[in-house]
UniProtKB/TrEMBL annotation:
UniProt KW Transcription regulation keyword: no
Catalytic residues (UniProt): 243
Record InterPro entries: Ald_DH/histidinol_DH, Ald_DH_C, Ald_DH_CS_CYS, Ald_DH_CS_GLU, Ald_DH_N, Aldehyde_DH_dom, LUC3-like
Domain Aldehyde dehydrogenase: 15-460
Alphabetic keyword roster: Oxidoreductase
Organism the protein comes from: Arthrobacter humicola
Name of this protein: Aldehyde dehydrogenase family protein
Membership in a protein family: Belongs to the aldehyde dehydrogenase family.
């Protein structure tokens, strides 16, 4: 794609029902999205089913080469993709936002293409030889969210394609244009029918989850929707990878340097304006350094500009949709009503255009406050005081979710000791939410199951087969 207009034109529907997508920062139209139906889904699955055997027959090397070319194509269209993403999702171009997300798409494609997955000899004792191989599943259904629509779609499709599968993507109804555009760019390097996007409503997602032609569902989103997908997939015994909601805890140990960790804490919590499953959403700080951490974190947060994403100065944007804005506002209002102390924010301008909620830090808040116990998924962070590490660990583990967590300390060994006690799929030391395409990622408890990324992520998109003899 040579220009932004050409990119948008390439995904503009020429027939059928459409829906206007609005910029959450300005309320202005971004473009027209197709409203696909279950019939469209059937056609996409049929095309994927027809294209998949030849793709699988190419072998790993040829498929990897195609994915590397797709990464090149994403990089060629990076600025146009980032502008569309910024307008549709709301995230700014700069900071760890739109340009960052498009860059991550290329990076994940490259790592999926180049990660080695060799047959594993599990027994070879002179009498018995057994090898473990991974064969393609067939057609994979990918259901993605609105917060990182391009990046998470690549998390799903890149390993699926590398392992010889075809993919049918169902994007969020809030951010279909970004995913349609990304797929259009990637499809420049793929056989026809292998990768398609069906931009429909809930009925399309339900049909995809229960379709007998789909061998696996990859889903990132809420725990409630994940449970519904589990039920929908049961009759066809689909394989599932579910990355569900989180309410990640961070624990600051008493030896930490408040000034040194303040910016890391900020971005751990407020990346993508807090709209990240594995963002820091509950911060537990030892009483000895509580006030100092509050002060340093407030100082950093106060310097971060929020506004329209296409303005190069901004690093924080609006909430993507009004429903999410209302959730954040309700939880902050409950915290304020309880007597918690507002360090920053908490005072949205009712006359401001767009779904902007100000960066908000709440101190002296009870651990059972709704802002602590419910996932806010927005720019509001509760900071809870603790006296003993046992207390902090117990509070961090008290909820029924466990996607990520973090421990902050000047002593990495002490931090790792605490990390081992936390019930989360990933525990970061002196950082939070830093995913890496080489490192497995997945949740504990009701934050889902299955692993993505790296060798384990490739294995999850194949059918294990033992050849014995």
């Amino acid at each position: 794609m040579e220009t932004y207009d050409a990119l948008l034109a390439s995904i503009s529907p020429t027939s059928g029902e459409t829906r206007t997508i609005l910029d959450p920062a300005t309320g202005q139209p971004v473009g027209q999205a197709p409203v696909h139906t279950v019939e469209d889904l059937e056609q996409a699955i049929a095309a994927a089913t027809a294209a998949q055997p030849a793709w699988a027959a190419l072998g790993h090397d040829a498929r990897s080469a195609a994915l590397l070319r797709a990464a090149d194509a994403v990089e060629r269209s990076a600025e146009e993709l980032a502008r569309l993403l910024s307008r549709e999702q709301g995230k700014p171009l700069n900071g760890p936002n739109a340009r960052f997300e498009v860059g991550a798409c290329a990076a994940w494609l490259r790592v999926a293409a180049t990660t080695a997955l060799e047959p594993e000899t599990v027994v070879d004792d002179g009498e018995t030889r057994a090898e473990l191989h991974y064969r393609p599943i067939g057609v994979v259904g990918a259901i993605g969210p609105w917060n990182w629509p391009m990046m998470i779609t690549v998390w799903q499709l890149a390993p699926a394609l590398r392992m010889g599968n075809a993919v049918v993507v169902k994007p969020s109804e809030y951010t279909p244009l970004s995913v349609l555009a990304l797929a259009a760019v990637i499809n420049e390097e793929l056989p026809e029918g292998l990768l398609s996007v069906v931009s429909g409503g809930r009925e399309v997602g339900e049909a995809l989850a229960g379709h007998p032609g789909i061998g696996k569902i990859m889903f990132t989103g809420s725990t409630a929707t994940g449970k519904a997908i589990i039920k929908s997939s049961a009759d066809t015994v689909k394989r599932l990878t579910l990355e569900l909601g989180g309410n990640d805890a961070g624990i600051v140990l008493p030896d930490a340097d408040p000034k040194a960790i303040a910016e890391g804490l900020f971005w751990g919590a407020f990346i993508n304006t807090g709209q990240t499953c594995a963002a820091l959403k509950r911060l537990y700080v030892h009483t000895d350094i509580y006030d100092a951490v509050c002060e340093e974190l407030t100082n950093v947060a106060a310097t971060m500009p929020m506004g329209i994403g296409l303005d190069e100065a901004n690093v924080l944007g609006p909430l993507q949709n009004r429903q999410q804005y209302d959730i954040v506002a309700r939880l902050v209002d409950a915290a304020k009503a309880s007597g918690a102390r507002v360090l920053l924010g908490g005072n949205p301008d009712p006359d401001r255009t767009g779904h902007f909620y100000p960066t908000t830090l709440i101190a002296d808040i009870d651990n059972d406050n709704p802002l602590v116990t419910e996932e806010q998924f927005g720019p509001a962070l509760p900071i809870i005081r603790y006296s003993t590490v046992d207390e902090a660990v117990a509070n961090a583990n008290a909820l029924d979710v466990g996607l990520g967590a973090s421990v902050w300390s000047a002593d990495p060994a002490a931090a790792r000791t605490v990390a081992a006690r936390l019930e989360a799929g990933t525990v970061w030391i002196n950082k939070h939410g830093a995913v890496d395409p080489r490192i497995p990622f997945g949740g504990a408890k009701q934050s889902g199951y299955g692993l993505e990324f790296g060798v384990e992520g490739l294995k999850a998109l194949g059918v294990p087969q033992v050849i014995n003899g």
